[in-house]
Amino acid sequence: MSKVALLVLFLCVFRMAWGQTDTAIRFVVTSQRLSDSAVELRVAAKVPKGVRLYTLRSGFDTTLCSSVKFELPGTARADGVLAESGRIVSSTDTSVGAPVRYVTDSLLWRQRFVIRDSGQVTIKTRITWFYLQKGAYLSGDSTFKTFILPGGSSGAAGDSTGASGGGSAGAGGPPSGAPWSAG
Q1: CB–CB of 9/145 below 8 Å?
Q2: Which CA distances in Å does 29 have to 10, 64, 74, 127, 179?
Q3: What is the pTM of this model?
Q4: CB 47 within 8 A of CB 106
Q5: Of the four listed, 9, 32, 138, 164, which is most buried by Cβ atoms within 10 Å?
Q6: Which of 17-21, 67-71, 105-109 is predicted least confidently?
Q7: What is the tens place of the pLDDT at every residue in 82-103?
Q8: Pair 28, 173: CB distance under 8 Å
Q9: CA distance 161 to 169
Q10: Could you report the per-residue pLDDT of 138-156, keeping only the tens digit for each?
Q11: What is the distance, to the nearest Å, from the Cα of residue 164 to the centroid of all Cα atoms in its chain?
Q12: What letter does residue 66 receive in the DSSP assignment?
């Protein structure tokens, strides 16, 4: 069996055994209208002391990485690539023998969208993340809904009830005009 296959198996076993561990990683999803047809969605992650949150896959292949996916209506499209910012550390993880990129305090993901609808538009965001806590490689998954309202206002609501510890699907709330934080 290849090293990568063994690593994936190892991570899956850890995920099943430790997936509900509370990491206290907090995600806040917000949106801002830039114009009548442009919106920027922001996902901010707050990482507690002693935890490494792995970043998005980069140009070089990394084994441990997080992902952000968007489910868009037919009236919206991504404008450019997902931007990532924070104090990113690049190194080689000797446990897996692969290059990794991570943060230890906070991370911000930003994506712009073009909206061709004058009514309310809902963008669903799914975050899947890997992190290192107390020597254990763990993962989490959360889904959020952001309501882009007409007239330049927007609100965010999440339909994940456990963003900091693996996430489980729940019911989303109505637009509130304020950012929604899972976890």
Answers
A1: no
A2: 31, 23, 21, 11, 6
A3: 0.71
A4: yes
A5: 138
A6: 17-21
A7: 999 999 999 988 888 888 899 9
A8: no
A9: 7
A10: 999 999 999 998 765 545 5
A11: 11
A12: B
